[in-house]
Design brief:
Helix content: 55-70%
Distance between the termini: 33 Å
Oligomer: single chain
Mean pLDDT: 92
Number of strands: 0
Number of helices: 9
């Protein structure tokens, strides 16, 4: 890659030194998707970002939010749920690369999730939808998708009920920190 095409790392994600590809995620299969899986998702999201693939990096963050964590794992102290990473990515994605429409992505994702932990993952997706709406107000919603978009208070209430301890505060601080 031409050095002029390089972009700064996302500061809210780890910076893996070794090459990675999709096989690093797939080795987990449907088995243990705990702390190790979460860390690999964060690592690979950074790798995809470095490769100028922000839409795919977001999909990798989706997988991190879906990891089977209780909220007390040590990895979360070092690498909290990647709400800040998402906002950084949305705010810094180069115009010449494919970002897709994260607002629509999270809107559809929240409405179509299945088990495991459907409520937790659903409300995290709505939280990411709210971040996307605020960070990228230029991106339209999907008017053909018949779904009730929740208010911020509802997202907070549901994250309190289904998220990790302190997750709602982390999300609200991230939302509040977005510059208009």
């Amino acid at each position: 890659m031409d050095p002029a095409d390089q972009i700064a790392d996302i500061p809210y994600l780890p910076c893996p030194e070794n090459p990675m590809d999709w096989r690093d995620l797939n080795r987990f299969g449907t088995g243990d998707r705990g702390s190790d899986f979460y860390k690999i998702c964060l690592d690979y999201s950074q790798v995809l970002w470095r490769q100028r693939l922000p839409a795919r990096a977001i999909l990798c963050l989706d997988r991190a939010w879906g990891a089977n964590l209780e909220g007390t794992e040590g990895i979360l102290a070092e690498w909290p749920l990647p709400y800040r990473a998402l906002v950084y990515l949305l705010s810094n994605a180069p115009e010449a690369v494919f970002l897709g429409n994260p607002r629509v992505h999270f809107q559809h994702y929240a409405d179509r999730l299945g088990e495991p932990r459907i409520e937790q993952r659903k409300w995290r997706s709505w939280a990411c939808w709210a971040l996307s709406c605020k960070a990228r107000p230029d991106l339209p919603g999907d008017p053909k998708h018949d779904v009730e978009e929740p208010a911020i208070d509802k997202i907070s209430e549901k994250l309190d009920a289904h998220g990790h301890p302190g997750e709602t505060l982390l999300w609200q601080q991230t939302l509040d920190a977005i510059e208009r």
